[in-house]
Each structure stands twice: as structure tokens, then as C-alpha cells.
Design goal:
The complex is a heterodimer of chains A (469) and B (466).
Chain A (H helix, E strand, L loop, with lengths): L2 E7 L6 H12 L4 E8 L2 H9 L12 E7 L2 H20 L14 H6 L5 E5 L3 H13 L3 E4 L6 H14 L3 E2 L5 E4 L2 E4 L6 E8 L2 H14 L3 E6 L12 H12 L5 E6 L4 H12 L5 E5 L7 H11 L9 E2 L19 E5 L2 H11 L3 E4 L3 H4 L10 H8 L6 E7 L8 H14 L3 E7 L8 H10 L3 E3 L2 H11 L5
Helix pairs in contact in A: 1-3, 5-6, 7-10, 8-9, 11-16, 14-15
Chain B lengths: L10 E5 L2 H8 L5 E3 L10 H9 L3 H14 L2 E8 H4 L6 E4 L11 H14 L5 H9 L4 E4 L5 E2 L11 E7 L5 E5 L15 H25 L2 E2 H9 L10 H18 L4 H9 L6 H14 L9 E7 L2 E6 L7 E4 L4 E4 L12 E2 L3 H4 L21 H11 L3 E10 L5 E7 L1 H7 L5 E6 L7 E7 L3 H14 L6
Parallel strand pairs in B: 1-2, 4-5, 6-8
Antiparallel strand pairs in B: 3-7, 3-9, 7-8, 10-11, 10-14, 11-12, 13-18, 15-16, 17-18
The chains are: A alpha/beta (469), B alpha+beta (466).
Chain lengths: 469, 466
Amino acid sequence: MSADLVRVRSGVYHDSVSLMGVSRALAALPGVEAAVVAMATELNLGLARDLGFDLPPADPSGLLIAVRAGDAGTLDAAEAELERQFAALANRRTGGEAAVSPPRTTRAALAGVEGAAVALVSVPGEHAFAEALDAVEAGVSVMVFSDNVSIEQEIRLKDRAAAVGALVMGPDCGTAAVGGVGLGFANVLRPGEVGLVAASGTGAQQVATLLDHAGAGVSHILGVGGRDLSAEVRGRSTVRALRALDADPATSLIVLISKPPAPEAADLVLDTVRGLATPVVPALLGPDGHDLTSAAEAVLNALEMPIPDWPSWIARESGEMTAHGPGWAGGALHGLYAGGTLCAEAEALAGEGTFTDFGADAYTRGRPHPMIDGTLRLDALAAVPAGDVVLLDVVLGHGADPDPSASLAPAVAQAVRRGIAVVAVVVGTEGDPQGLTRQIHALAGAGASVFISNAHAVRHAVSLTGSAK
Amino acid sequence: MTLPMLSGDLQVITVGAGLLGEAVDAQAVPRVGVDWRPPLPGTEAAIARVLADPRRAAANETAVDRLLSARPHLVTVRPAHEVLDLAPGAFLHAGPPIGWKRASGPLRGALIGAMLYEGAAGDAREAERMLAAGDVRLSPCHHHRTVGPMAGVVSRSMWMLEVHDAEHGGTAYCSLNEGLGKVLRYGAYGPEVLKRLQWMGDVLGPVLRAALAVSGPLDLRALMAQALQMGDELHNRNRAATSLLLRELAPAIVDAAPERAAEVLRFIHGNDHFFLNAGMAACKVSADAARNVPGSSMVVAMARNGTDFGIQVSGLGDRWFTGPAGVPDGLYLGAYGPADANPDIGDSTITETGGVGGFAMAASPAIVRFVGGDVAEATAATRSMYEITLAEHPAYQIPGLGFRGTPVGIDVTLVARTGLLPVVNTGIAGRVAGTGQVGAGLVNPPVEAFTTALAALAEEAPENTA
């Protein structure tokens, strides 16, 4: 035998949504067959009558409560729940300011930004265009760290940027420094007057860290992306970056670091260079041009600063001899690199050996860049045959492994014990979070010969190979 | 050239690898991190292509400027047959095109009711037979500069609010609101429904026309702006707007029709949603001003017919992009529950298209429990809509957000990129024809309406773009 509870309360008001919530809570109780808790409007009274409730007279300012349950006990429970619900409504907080969620697109993030700004895009390449375009359409320069961006998208981004006075750094731009703020893989450099325009991330890092060692500071490093001086892209960002540094009062000397531009881009770039008020040191890399170290030296010459002896820590020939090793190396050369330009430079300078760029796409798909996680390279090092020579790079700075020697030094020590000669170039500054000296000492202590110039490291490594003997 | 980033205190926006963001933080440089997530599955190529369309940025600016600059005025009320291309035996309905076979209960009920109202059939059975036989021409309201709430059925004799855009010259129409409960727009067609429609045609419509002739055009944009500051969001809460409308019209109603004024004013007073239809026509005329801008990815209509949820996009003409209409998640009247609910229905999503309704939830704390709880969530709902819209409305402002304009101008590319779907709050119609309203709540539009529109935009984008 079911039981009904029917009441009309006066002097109580709750909005219909709250009351529908109460009705729902009551109806959800086991044994409750129907529940209408609502202001006593004609509509709601009609609904309750349709459910068979016998209603007293009521006016719309009253609060109608109509509950039907399977038995009196359930009805009591429902009434208790009703009071709990009303108490909750009465005590309900007015609600505070919602925690503001972070923006979901670059466009939304830029909506709240005024003044000098730069966007750093490192989403997977197929999604990078949208985020970078957001920045450009807002008139904001953007560094595209992402690779796998199509050349059509790159050109479109750069053309849009030109129209609004912004710069696209990248795609596949590993490093930049804007007014002392490092972006991507970035060394902590002393502030100064040299501005770099670089189509190569690790190339720019090598030159800038050598300049830092020599006492020359850097104003900005503007990356342009490895394809910028290709026949297709035709130096779109290089030209803009050169002009921007020319107009920058903090920059009194510009360095352009790139492979030799494609013929389609070369004239445009050279014309631009000729039109600048600021002197430009073109550091065009390759067999007929510079290596990174000589580029840094050319800059120092232009600055009329002395060229230091680039320091090195040479492992003693006999000191790390192993019991079972064949003596000091003399075998083949293996270049195990994290930095693409450093690897290419080493391969070109060495003219022999096998070189692997662990930062290349094939090695970074689905895993972190070797500057962040060197596991793959450690495996490769362990597989080098005894008696051979290994050449590797360690790149320091923001974004990179916070302590690369922690994993590398033990692996080097083990390799040296196996009779392998290890030559390392450490690209970094004392200001870098990892500490240049600390990293050098750790690697030298493990038995590696250590350089801060990649070119010098390569020449030393070649001198250790069989071909040099 | 100078680059702004080279001078001044730099701020960095990072999107992607967290490590690179942390590297910026380590340098104690101010940073805004984007909470980036992959776009809707399979859309990245179309997103890139549409974004690369050289027409897009300017086209969207044009489209949203037109939407924002529209100045809707309620000018008069007239019978549908005077203003709409509506032959005898033809009926309009809400949402994208649909035939009887796929029509849901409430739409069927409303069509039956409209046929009875027009005398096109002697009884419900005959009406149903004629409808099923295809003897009746059905056409979406949206194809006739018209919007209709819920079933949105419009027939020749119904009186229509006529809203004129004083800026661009457009005109839009919407029927008169019948009130809540058992009403035609929720698919009810009983005697009391027909009787009310009769009265609306005989009394309400003519009186309102006479009153508007006395008062002159009513500035709906100004009225809606005020109502938002009085706690309406203008889709599910229209109490303030209705009150303002009543205040504006009451003297003119008394002047124009003293002997009928009391019953007309009482009717309007008894219906908190009376303003909804005027607001819908205002949003419709504004959105129509933004139509047909080649290359624009801005949504100019969202509408449901009880079976499909469809959108139209400025750069894609009159094409509809549809997906299945969802069942709203909400609260129910009386003993009704989710099993009684019809899938989402009505043209009233033109309010969200125009930057109010669910997009203005933060303005309406009184009904925030539609979004499942509290004021904070309503605020979050509105805030999230800024992610997918092109602009902030200059007139429609939210006091609780520091008088920030409501988010307006849904961009299909932003929906695809963020996966955030427009927030729609809506009434819930009963599934069975003739039931009426059973509740109210929130509903998610179907993703495919947006992804198929995006694909069409991509196809329309000029060749040789990235």
C-alpha cells in the first residue's frame, strides 16, 4: 500500500533548477515511486495531479512537495532526505571565481599578452603550423622547434610573418636567444654586441659558446630553420633576421651561420648584407668556407679581439691503458653525435670514419632528443670495437640533459678500459646549468680527451686513428 | 625593420614540450603555457589547409564584424502568409531539412497540430496520414529567414515577430512564444494547444502589431544587453528580458487595444520565455548578416530538428553539416526522466551562434545548475567558449567577468583544434508526440557536424596552399 506525502510550504522560494535537482534526488531513493518538489505553478500542480496526487489549494508562490513511496517508512526516509536537500540549498555557497583554466591554443594564450612577446612551438610537426600561424596572425614572432613541417607551410608562415612584421624562427629551429632569454636548447651567454643569424642550431651554439669563452658577448641568436636558404624558401627569414639585427641598437656585429645558400637565395641574402649598416661576418660552412671554430675566430678578428687557445684536456697516451687492450687505439673512427651540424662538420673535417647523428629523425621518432636522453648513444658507445676511436659531442644549456656526464662518464670510462680512445667536444659555458668545467672534468676524469672546439676535437680524433699513423 | 621582441621585457608563450617551458621558467622569464592537446582525430590536414586559405583571416574578420555590428529591431508582428514564402499546405520546421519518416515525436506532434490549426486535416489521424504520404511540403525555417524554438513549426496563419537589422538591412522572423507546458513547439496538439494558438492569432498578434505601430521599433540589442546584466543568458532564462519587453510595450498595448490589454499583458507576464523568440530573431538577423563570406570558417547557424543537429558556415553558403542530435543531460519536470526525453530539437541554438545562451552562462547564476553544479562551472563554461570564438561581443557583456563581452563567432577550425564543442543549454521535449516539455539541460553538439564542415572548407580552399 503506497503512501503519499503532500505539502505546500509558503514563504520558501527556490529556483526551478534547484528543485528539479531535489526531485531527482528523492526519486532516486529506493521505494520512492514519484516525487514532485516544485513551486506551485499551474503547470507543476497539473503535473502532480496527473501523477494522482490529491492537492490542497495553492498559489504559485508556494512550494509544492508531493512524494509517493511504497510504504510509510520509505516516505519518512524521503522526508528526511528532503530536509537534507533543503538544508543543502540554504547553505549552498554563492560560488567563487572559477579557477581560470590555461589557454588551449596559442591564439588564446596571446589574447592576454601585451608588449614584447615570442611564441615557442614544439608540438608534433603536423600540428605546428596552426600554433605558429596563431602567433604570426597576432603579429608575434615565433620559434618553431618542431620538425616535420612541410616546406609549403614554412613558406606560408614566413610570408604571413613578413606581412605583419614578425619573424619565423624555424621550423626545426633548435636554439634561439632573444635579449638574453634562451629558447629551446640554449646556452647561458654573456650579454654583448654580436648578433647571430643561424640556419643551424648546434652550429650557432658552438660559435656562441666559443665567443663566450673568448670574452665576446651575444645580443641575440635568431634561428631561421635549416631550409631557409634553400632554393624554395629563398632566405625569407634570413633576410628579415639580418634586417632586424641591423635595426637593433644592442647589435654592432652580425654573424650569419649557414651552409652556403642555394644559388636562388644567395643573391638576395648578399644584397641584403650589402645594404646593412651593421657589419656582417658570413660564416658559410663547408669545404670551401668555414668550420664553426674558424667562424668564431673570424668574428673575434672583426671585433679586434685576440683569439684564445681553445682549451683542451688530452688523455695521457699510456695513462688509461688497459690490461687486455691493444694499446692506444689506432682503429677506425666512430662519430656519435647529438648535434646535426656538429656531426656534419666532423664528418666533413675527418674525411673518414662512420658518423651517426642521433638527433636525426630516425632516432628521435617516439623518443627524446639525445641532448635530453642519451640512452641510444650509450648503447652505440658500448658496441664500438676495442681499439677504435670514438668522437662525440656533449651539448649543455637550458633544455638539455641537466647532467649529461652522470651517465656518459661511466660509459666513457668503460670504453677507455676496453682500449677505445674517446674524444669529446663539450659545447657550453660556465653559466650553463650543467657547468662547463664540471662536465669537462667529469669526462676527462673518465679518460676522454675533451675539447670545446669541435674542429679541434675532430683533428685530434683523426690523429688517433690508424690512418694517421 | 624592427622586431618588437628584441626590445622590452620579453614574455614567452610555450606550446608543446613541457621541458622547453620549464627551461624558460628556469630563466625566471614570464611565460604563458598552452594546455595543448591534439585536435579532433583525423582533422589535422584539413585544419592546416583551411588555416592556410589566404582568404580566411580577412573573411572571418568581415563575418564576425557583420555579426557584431548588426542592430536588430523588433518592428512589427505579422501573419506568416504575408511575409514568408509559404504556400498553403507547406510548413516550416526547426533544424536542418528532414522528412516525416525520420522526424521525431515532438516534430511530428507539432506538424499534426499545425495542420489541425490550419484546418488542413480534420483530425490527428488524417493529418498523420497526409504527412506520411508526403502530401505536405516541409522546409527548414532557416531557409526562409526564420527561426523557430523546439519543433519550430510555422504555418501560414501564425503570427511572426519581424526583426529588422538597422545596420545591414536584413530581416528575420520568429513565431510568438506560447508559454511552457503543453504547447505546440514541444509537440503537443491537444485542444488547449489549438485553442491557445487560435487566441494568439486572433488577439495576441493583432494587439502586438497595433502596439508596435504605436511604440515604434524596439531596439533588441539594447534590451538584450540589459537583460544579460540582469541575470538572463537569453536561452533558458529570459525572465529579465521578458520583463523589459513588457515594460517597453505595456503603455503602447494599453493605448492600442485598451479592451484587450489586460489579457495580453497577463499572457506575456505568465510566460518567462516570451522574449526568447524575439531574441532568437535578433540573433538570426545578426547571423544572417554574416552569411556567404567566401573563405570564412565562422558558424552562422546551429539548429536541430529532433533527429539531426546541423550547422551552417559563412563560407559554405546554405549547405548543412549534420550529425545525430544528442539527448540533453539535464533535470526533469515532475516524474519525467531521461527515458522520456527526445533528442535535442529547435532553432534556439541561434542564441549560442549569436554569443548568448550557453555562451553567456556566466551571466546567469540563477540557472547555473544546468551545467551540473555551481557558479564556478558556469564561469568556466563561458570562459571555455572564448577558445572557439573569434570575438567578444561589444554590447553583450557579463558583469561577473568584469563586463567582458560574451564569446561570439564560433570558428570551425578552433572547434576542431581544441575539441571544445559549443556549450548549448536547452529545453528538453518529450519523446512522444503530444507530451510537451519534460525538462531542461545541457547538450553536446555532434562532433561530425564540425568535422564535416571543416572538410568542406578544406575542399573549398584554393589549390596550391599548404
